[in-house]
Amino acid sequence: MTRAIGYMRELLPGTTPDTDELTRAGAEQIFTDDGPAESRTRPGLEECLHSLDPGDTLVVTSAAHLSSAVPHFVATVAGLRRRGVGFRSLSEPALCAGVGASVDPGEVLLALEVLRRRLASLQTRAGMATAAEEGRRPGRPTVMTPERIAMAVELRNLDRPITHIARVLGVSANAVQRALAPIPRTTKSQP
Which of 6, 70, 105, 174 would be 22's cystine partner, CB 3.0–4.6 Å? Predict the structure, then answer.
């Protein structure tokens, strides 16, 4: 008897896996992991993989739920195939493996590239969320310190061009322009 077994994990911090789509796809049993997306230990996945018998099909809404890296995804699906277990991704049909799953190799490679990009995006977003939780601002630090901004304001009030101010401060003209954009320029009063 073949069964459809579902698996889903938390892709971004604070999101809860929604298993309704897997249920509609015929998953008889659904395993989930609610921990952080970058976690190396996923007890729900381990339990899911051990519960699969030959002839069963592992169903996921997206291949991103199964793995956090393309090489791990490929190794996992290859391991399932060796055991006689099929794989079905609801959003990436080109990555499905099992009975009746024949697709163009070009489509498979394209789907793997899309998966790689999605996983990179998820990892970036998770890292930014973690940084925000810790009170850090992600990205490059600004070169325009409060002292440099004050100097730029003074020079601009003396009608110095942006390029001159940038050269004096040792920063780019764009950095000076961004720093001065929210600061209104004072005008000299005529007697």
Answer: 6
Residue 186 located in a structural domain? no
Alpha-carbon distance 59 to 87, whole Å?
Answer: 6
The CATH number for 127's domain is 3.40.50.1390
CA distances from 94 to 105, 111, 114 (A): 9, 6, 11
Type of residue found at 7: Y
Residues in the chain, overall count: 191
In sign, the C-alpha dihedral spanning 37, 43, 45, 46 is: positive
Q: What is the domain range of residue 153?
A: 146-180
pTM attached to this predicted model: 0.65
3-state secondary structure of 25: coil
User: Does residue 88 share a domain with residue 43?
Assistant: yes
- Paired strand residues for 6: 30, 59
How crowded is residue 184: how many other Cβ atoms within 10 Å of its Cβ? 7
pLDDT one-digit tens code per residue, 146-184: 999 999 999 999 999 999 999 999 999 999 999 998 766
CA 88 to chain centre: 22
